Amino acid sequence: MVVRTIYVTRHAFRVSYTLNTTTGEYHTNSPSPTNIPSDPPLAAYGVEQSYELAEALANLDPAIDYIYSSPFYRCLQTVEPAIKKLGPDIKVRADNGVGEWYGVASFDHPSPAPPAILKSLFPSSLDDTYRASIVPPRSGETIAQLHDRVANALTHIITSVDAESGTKEIALLICTHAATLIAIGRTLTGSMPHDPNEDDFVAPTAGITKFVRKAVAEPDLLEISGQGSRVRPEAIDWKDGTGVAGGWTCVLNGNCDHLAGGAERTWHFSGEEKFGDPESLPKTSTEVGELLSSTSQTYRKSRELKI
Questions:
Q1: What SS3 state is found at 218?
Q2: Long-range contacts of 289-294 (CB under 8 A, 24+ apart)
Q3: From the DSSP assignment, how many helices (H) and strands (E) are in the chain?
Q4: 256-266 pLDDT, tens per residue?
Q5: For the residues of 42-70, what is the DSSP string, one character each?
Q6: Which among 110, 170, 179 is positioned nearest to 149, based on CA atoms?
Q7: What percent of the chain has pLDDT over 90?
Q8: Res. 23 pLDDT band, cuts 50 70 90
Q9: In sequence order, what DSSP letters do the residues of 232-285 get, joined into one string?
Q10: Which of 53, 118, 124, 279 is the most buried (most CB within 10 A)?
Q11: Does the pLDDT at position 91 exceed 80?
Q12: 40/34 Cα distance (integer angstroms)
């Protein structure tokens, strides 16, 4: 059978950090377990939210069969209580393809901790045999490139699970970040607003958004190899209502009925983000393209190297 249901949640309330937008230096007053300043843990309030979320996730219908997450600590920490409730057979697959969005910069944005470090922090819940579908360029992405990266990651995730699922209809959960959650909603449904700043998909901390599949896509997006399914980025056409992997309908949008505090920390795009030395940043769309022209090669190379 195939994936029929996708649940998406944003990580719970996190500890704050700051960024020097000129130098690219991140700082936090609360040390991260990964020793990466831009990779903070949940705040105490966020830990409470994660337990409230776990209770809701454990009672969903259909029940969750697979969990995918951004590899940043706050996302993995958010789903940890749910994994314990769902049982020992479910492990989380950390995938950079559904990781954080950083705007274009003249410096390198931070990467999440490597799988070995994450395994030491989440020894019983992390599937350390899984390899990320896509690794975003450290120089950042435009909003359009974020959406295309997410479309590629989702196509890989969905079609891979389709191939694994046997005779069962599958429901999977993705834990991610606000910008990426919005991009997931748009690429699943094929609905890209003319103004990317539009409030369409709601992204509160620890909310639940649900998508139901319309149809199963043709299998010509897959290249089956000894390493599993592989996506050809240039083959994905998700806009104009098409959606990835057959298209999806959003039936629940940022629901927070399970949270004592309700919907909090909602977010939306506010134009392109650019960081760093103004003289080093691209000033036109052509220059942005030149700066990030290696993005597709980065995607392909990341899969070849199994980053």
A1: coil
A2: 291/104, 291/139, 292/104, 292/137, 292/139, 292/140, 292/141, 292/142, 292/145, 294/137
A3: 7, 12
A4: 999 999 999 99
A5: B-HHHHHHHHHHHHHHTT-SSPP-EEEE-
A6: 179
A7: 68
A8: confident
A9: -GGG---TTTT-GGG-EEEEEEEE-TT-TT-S-S-----S--EES-TTTS--SH
A10: 53
A11: yes
A12: 8
150: its two tokens: 């997410």
What's the pTM value of the predicted model, to 2 decimals? 0.86
Q: Are 189 and 250 in contact (CB under 8 A)?
A: yes
Residue 39 makes CB contacts below 8 A (sequence gap 6+) with 32, 72, 73, 74, 110, 112, 113
Q: What is the mean pLDDT of residues 111-133?
A: 95
For tokens 């980065």, name the residue: 298
Structure tokens, 65:
């069969």
Place of tokens 């996708």: 6
Q: What is d(CA 73, CA 69) in angstroms, rounded to the nearest whole number?
A: 10
